[in-house]
Amino acid sequence: MEIKNTYVRSWVEEMALLTRPDQIVWIDGSEAQAEELRKQAMATGEMIKLNQEKLPGCYLHRTAVNDVARVEGRTFICTTNKEDAGNINNWMDPYECYYKLSKLYRGSMKGRTMYVIPYSMGIVGSDFAKYGIELTDSIYVVLNMLIMTRVGTEVLEAMGNDAGFIKGLHAKADIDEENRYICHFPQDNTIWSINSGYGGNVLLGKKCFALRIASYLGRKEGWMAEHMLILGVEYPNGETKYICAAFPSACGKTNLAMLIPPAVYAQKGYKVWCVGDDIAWLRVGEDGRLWAMNPENGFFGVAPGTNEKSNPNALHTTMKDTIFTNVVHDLDNNTVWWEGLDNNPPANAIDWKGNKWDYTKYDKKDKSTCGAHPNSRFTAKAANCPCLSAEFENAHGVPVSAIVFGGRRAKTAPLVYQSFNWQHGSFVGSIMASETTAAAAGAVGVVRRDPMAMRPFVGYDMGDYWQHWIDMGKKIPNAPKIFHVNWFRTDDEGHFIWPGFGDNMRVLMWILARCEGKVDAVETAIGYVPKAEDINIEGLEDVTLDTIRELVSIDTASWKEDLANIKEFYALVGDRVPAEMKEELAALEKRLG
Ligand code: OXD
Ligand code: MN
Question: Which ligand 1 atom sits nearest the alpha carbon of residue 227?
Fold first, then answer.
């Protein structure tokens, strides 16, 4: 392969001098090369080929036991000034970080191969695409990147001799937790990741580039990179309206993005289409609307809990060309299993750690008995998703009618409310939060504030990020309306009141009706809530109009309690919290009385 980009060539040479691989292999994006790599990974045990009749093109991989999730404590934003990284991010001086990590990278690829992955976030050659090169010594990373992004020679061609690509260096080194670092240098377009092999830390196109670096670039260039799904609701007349939604990790973004309409809508011809399940890049279009595109090319979804009821579309998507990570290996069928897939755990099985697994010892309350790791994953091609939007390959993306924020709150947040305007909506995003559940270790009901679901992903100061939201609103003549949802309100016994899953469409339909001015609402201290009769409950068994009234009621006492927590968080964000956000907070306090 002839490499015309002189910046790419010299940077790869420089990184090779540092890491000293035995050989360098350029990834061209061809199936023949991918197949060769799969064969090598099978020979070393890095990947297990699954039953090709039941799961064609599917493989299983197990990470090291100490390397199963993103590591926020070891994720750094390295800006020249500490203040620019802000109080929420970990910061390291860029020179100190380069120096420290260079020592770890030095010679780390001896005896190994360095793979050079040219990849694109967005449609190759389009105005909105951004390009990166990831260097890695992991075949698993190469094969995942081939699914999650657009990879190969055509990317190098589209890059021309431009120096503005994102330079990502990943080395497995010794998978040493104590020396694990995920470092971002937004001023240098650079990402350095070492001592991990877990997806979120090593698939550098995803969280590192498409959120942390891209959010920094977006502020500089006047657009937004957000932790949002994108879905389209098609009406029986063929028209489609698009919604972007941000929820903290593990709150069901993939499920909502691939939602199956309940019978009451399906029978009338409504359809839901998935454009993306995790990341949205948002820009103002020439028509004055906000447009969203999904820069990814696949789904890196959480496996446990995915089943025929919660997300049949995701399940179907994973039936071919998928890499499963840290799930149960069913030895009799050479297939995979995870908690919450069905009620038939395999009798002859290997757990995510690679040990023999006895399902009879599985205790729901004790995570250590799980066969699949709770954060086990599937990496699946978007093209295999049965409800993939026809606009998925549209380089401009889709026009956004509504932005929806959400969290997991037992009492405070109602099922849905609408903000008064963009500025208030940005404030609603800034106070987003989720509560820990009984399912997770630790205390129940502990509130973690996760503004716009971006707490772990903003590549600069959180206060500046909020300012960017407010400033963007002024640049969108026909801005989307902003809402907040909570599928997780519980009754006094701790049971969820709202059925969730496909029935969440009933709430989306109210949201879209509001966007079109087709339905009234009730003004409250926190925003507009629905009149109970405007949420369609036809066909729901245990939900009455009284249930909806309860779900949209505002518990003033718990909101007042929440105010104290919000103020604490604002203080933590520090002195760059925009004046507009403080005004909104004061106004909310006043309205609550
Ligand atoms: C993810 C996350 O993996 O948000 O998407 O953690
Ligand atoms: Mn995510």
Answer: 4
